[in-house]
## 1
Amino acid sequence: MGILNATPDSFYDGGRYTSPDTILAHARQLLADGADIIDLGVVSSRPGAQLLEPEEEAERLVPLVRLLRQELPCETIISVDTCYSLPATKAAEAGADIINDISGGQFDPQMFSSVASLRLPYILMHTRGLPNVMQESYNTQYNNILDVLSDYFQSKLEKLDNLGVQDVWLDPGFGFAKTTDQNYHLLLHLDQLIARFPFYPMLTALSNKSMITSRLASSQGTPDQYFPLPDSEFGTLVLNTLALRAGTRLLRVHTPRLAKVAINLLFPDSN
């Protein structure tokens, strides 16, 4: 899954892809580099970010979905990164194939019912609190993070199942309401979480996140920082390899070419 951030304040590439020409060119490059899915978002969900109102998000998102659907190869799979039912529904009408919801239905009580009516695959992510407060200490307290995530997914999956939603992917939400140490604990025990949900494939989104940059900065004796460092892509490759070994089925990345290296080496028969 190649990340296409059409937003001015993304932590990784904010402001690079804001015109139709640059957005389309980047989408084509992601496909050329090996992406199987284009994940389009128009709102940053980085720590501290403020979400848009659903109406404004839909106004930004829908024309871009139409653009990608019209200009990219017809077999291209388009995912939309949104946590509100209105832009999700409008994007689906414009040709989106997957709903990728960082909130797990928490920010919009109509999200689950909308997904059920759309009959599209749904990515269910774990987080606590809106992005502007998710890293506050009260949102990063866990007695046992694996048990907490298991209970969270189980509860959400029961609600989705009751609504008739069948095609659900899980995302543990690295970097969302988790400290750096918690992120690494979760990654190193990801196989255990995956084993608890054998019928629901796992997506991991580790690309260039602060759990990488903070440790790289520390190892280099530089101040802790949030934004990617020159070696962040190498760190991403290492962590994606661990995630694949744990049983991850889908990687959400900024640079698909590096992700494909890991996939091709670990699973030479995957193509």
## 2
Amino acid sequence: MPRQELHSESLMGRYRWLGDSGVESSLQASLTRSGIDITNFVHESRSILDIDYQARYAYGRHDILWGLAHRTTRDHFGPNEPYVTGESASATLQKTGLYVHDDWMLVPEKLKFSLGLRADKATRNGTNVSANSSLLWTPTRSDSIWAKYGQAPRTSSRGERDISIFSGYSVLQTRSPIFPFPVINVPVVARSIANPNGYGSEQAKGLELGYRKQFSNAFSADINAYRYRYTDLRSSRYLRTYGCNALFALTPAGYNPAACSALSLDTAPVMVAELQIDNALSGWSQGIELSADWLVMPNWRLQFSYTVSRLKIDGNSDAARMNELAAPRHYGSLRSQWNISPDHQFDLWLRGSSGLDLRNGIDKVPSPTGGITFSHVPGYVTLDLRYAYRLNKDLEFSLIGRNLIGGSRVEYISDYIPTAATKVSPTWLVGTRWNF
């Protein structure tokens, strides 16, 4: 039985200072090492170095924030050929970005305009620019109305550009003149082919409108509506289908002994469907978010949020259905923060999500069309608890319980790498935090 092991370790440091000119600065650095090992499938180890510098300076009606961010990623990929192959076993990727943001108070305490710009240059992803702007109007001390616009890219990962993988298995129920039976079941293996130079960044841009009401010093609520347009989304382009046994020579799929031999499928009674990742999908995402904040007592706060959303991908393809069904429509959350005393804290987080449907990467049920099938992931409601004791201002101990309602559950099924679904189970943790 395949076994999946993961590990992650990180070290982070931050330093802040105030310059003589009034510029507030901070420098943060972190080093993370992680790895994943799936028996007889793939092994990967990764090291990530992050360095972020940020500065802030206020003058007149302007509050300006600027900074520099850099990331270096080194990875080693140990594939299990021919099921998983890569353009190279190791790679070093770098990404450097510059950003600036200005909050400009047009009318004191009434109208504020914000504008931000960021440019990132990444190895093999080129230069990408993102921008955002917002306008905040506060007609009264208890009312706020805002409009926001933003656009940003999602750069591609090495796995999307460099890795070829057996990404699915299904059984096609078909007819063939070369078999003496009217109907036969043919295994079909899907193989996703690397696209190192033809796959680029995904793009998103959209608008948000919101309103907040401060009903009292202790209670406020807001509503936010959004609509985003996504283009150049990841999709798969069909390349070809071929058989790996001479019996397929008389069928439309044909027989390709050279390709099958390269995949160690010599004479296997299967067909291979090759796909290549590209940027052919686009669509819309829209929804409404509600939230409320209630300070019940000076030492007890309740926070509520609820989101309803809808994803609509252009067209009626299998890829469009797959993306739409994989997005849950409803999500809700209730947080309670109770400071029992200066040294004791008790937090509660009740949350839930509606169900979703994810494509079956492996489907052994014969199908006359070969179309994709889905597995339903039910919605859930669960609870997290946290009790903390502060020994002094620098040292804190905590007891944390996670996913304490509903027992073990599956929240996600891989629709790309055919791995076993991981169940989320109730867990208890003991932690400590030391500031120095």
## 3
Amino acid sequence: MAFFTMKLKSQSLRSTTTVRLYLPCDKTDTQSSEINGMMTLLHGFTNDGDDWVNCSAAIRYAADNGLALLIPDASNSFYHDTATGQAYYTWITQEMPALLQKMVNLPWQREKNVICGLSMGGYGALMIGMNNPHRYFGCASFSGAVDLQMMLDAAATHPEVQATFAPILGQNLLLSPDRDLMHLASQISQMPSAQRPKVLCTVGRQDIEPYMIYPQNLRFKAHAEQLGLDLHYLEWDGKHEWSVWDRSLVHAIDLFFQPGYAAQKLQDWATT
């Protein structure tokens, strides 16, 4: 394997930022050296991309399936070009890929690229994936804030909501249609099926306080069903925690790259 932690200077962010890259390059001489696909993994609020490396088995799962991992940092931006001038959406969708294409031979074809994230990153993964269906054939949210307007509507009685989102959206907390997952789901539902990204949402049933993540996911699921959108939805007992997100990553690999992988891992974990 090869794992790189890169400090890249971004014009969009007007600063340096960290990007992590895992490459499954330790195959035997009898195995193909081709990378089967690439997963971009997005982190949650108040955290960074190190969480995916330190708190999950993402690298082991990627190695099992010959996948590259791309793990950028995005501060607390919700992956927006923020009102305070940090253009994380532009960085992740335009500038970062352009820089990496000059440095590393990665599979950039649509049919080999998915984007996944947890919590804030779950929102970011669906927002970026549904805005860029020409780039990603799949996007996945693990315990994601998939109905951001539900959170914004609570700003009047929850000062922390105003404090979190004002630097991102401005003092009026206006969510534009291209950042609203409900609107984006409506858009992609009208596309030809071959051009739509596959969408996966997973969530723990006890993930309620303080962000109402489970109710948000139920509303997004109902909206997708009303649209006739082929949403892959999984829920099980759990809170806002790594046991949910590690398990979710296995199911994402199963859906996007290796059918049967989730059942294989379940068997690995089973005891007699």
